[in-house]
Amino acid sequence: xxxxxxxxxxxxxxxxxxxxxxxxxxxxxxxxxxxxxxxxxxxxxxxxxxxxxxxxxxxxxxxxxxxxxxxxxxxxxxxxxxxxxxxxxxxxxxxxxxxxxxxxxxxxxxxxxxxxxxxxxxxxxxxxxxxxxxxxxxxxxxxxxxxxxxxxxxxxxxxxxxxxxxxxxxxxxxxxxxxxxxxxxxxxxxxxxxxxxxxxxxxxxxxxxxxxxxxxxxxxxxxxxxxxxxxxxxxxxxxxxxxxxxxxxxxxxxxxxxxxxxxxxxxxxxxxxxxxxxxxxxxxxxxxxxxxxxxxxxxxxxxxxxxxx
Length: 309
Fold this sequence. Notes:
Number of helices: 13
Mean pLDDT: 95
Number of domains: 1
CATH topology: TIM Barrel
Number of strands: 8
CATH architecture: Alpha-Beta Barrel
Radius of gyration: 18 Å
Structural class: alpha/beta
């Protein structure tokens, strides 16, 4: 298996557990990383959007990367989030990812201020010049920052350091077009669980999603159905989780996914976002019911297994 082949499949995008004052809970992060290492996933992806990397200082993000790498101990591939508001911040995180021996890095265009497509190309080329053997994965996430056009992606695909893209736009048309244009083993990942099976059918090589870090057995089941060419079973599994995802998306991102993680038994800590108690309680109650139905349907395991660690 070549190095790019080994990065295909489901990647767990991890939430960052925090303590009362909002700092990362590194002991709990280690425990959850060890738990995920026992699941049928390809890789772990800390310092992601779901992991709320923007809320932490550089030193805390670097420590999140270090603790995750140490806890994984070679059991899973490691993909570091190195997104930043500037090229300099991303380059500093890139150096830490090299130091902790990550297999690849995900990086979006600098956020907050709009970027032209030429700016984006220049940004990624600057990072690629600093890669020194590290694999880079583009990040198309127009919800948070400037998006990448198909032309821009194709131009950047020519750099050997740039080996793939995480597309969190849920735009199946663009992903399908991209899957028809990719070359030299370029990897395309979907970033949304809602369209996991359709993305795989369109030719995507893998996924980087929140559910892979919360209910990884549901995600691995979709992959199994796809590999076995049992699309009917895959469709049933895909549809089974849609009500749960709608509930998660009814709260400000990523609060809904952190609530789901809490219900599953992952200690996430105090949320950074707040909604009314009545709304939160209503969503939690409905989430618990949906999880019970998924468990009864054989799509989700009973309990999380975290209590065994």
